[in-house]
Structure to design on (153 residues):
């Protein structure tokens, strides 16, 4: 059974998606493709949205960076999320080069918010805290700095 053609024009669908929230170009293309639009139509709609500056990967990446920081994510997690959304590596690199976030201080703030000022009293608790910070996207140097530890894990 063949899928019914969508009732809405591809441009209307694209603008509808973008009116709810910003999208990366790849993400928008995938959503339109999943709704049954043809590639040529999708290309035209994407170009239309870019002409009006409704679709902008650099703006989307900046928004993802701010949201990630607010959620307590580290650089590695934010970079991974941007990659999953289909933001080109050049755009990500430019964004992070211009960013002035002190990732070490951010890691310390996230650790304090989650664990307070108390030190881990057992190796098991210490490992749990390190895993939490790794999941959030911080590297080992940032994690060591966050917990004020000089020793190796």
């Amino acid at each position: 059974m063949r899928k019914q053609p969508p009732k809405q024009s591809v441009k209307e669908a694209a603008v509808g998606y973008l009116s709810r929230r910003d999208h990366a170009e790849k993400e928008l293309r995938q959503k339109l493709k999943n709704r049954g639009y043809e590639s040529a139509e999708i290309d035209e709609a994407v170009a239309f949205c870019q002409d009006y500056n409704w679709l902008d990967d650099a703006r989307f990446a900046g928004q993802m960076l701010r949201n990630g920081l607010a959620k307590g994510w580290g650089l590695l997690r934010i970079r991974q999320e941007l990659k999953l959304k289909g933001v080109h590596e050049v755009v990500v690199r430019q964004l992070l080069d211009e960013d002035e976030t002190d990732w070490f201080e951010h890691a310390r703030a996230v650790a304090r918010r989650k664990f307070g000022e108390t030190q881990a009293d057992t190796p098991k608790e210490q490992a749990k805290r390190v895993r939490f910070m790794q999941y959030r996207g911080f590297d080992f140097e940032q994690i060591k700095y966050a917990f004020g530890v000089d020793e190796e894990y």
Remarks:
- The longest helix spans residues 57-70.
- The chain is about 70% helix and 0% strand.
- The mean pLDDT is 91.
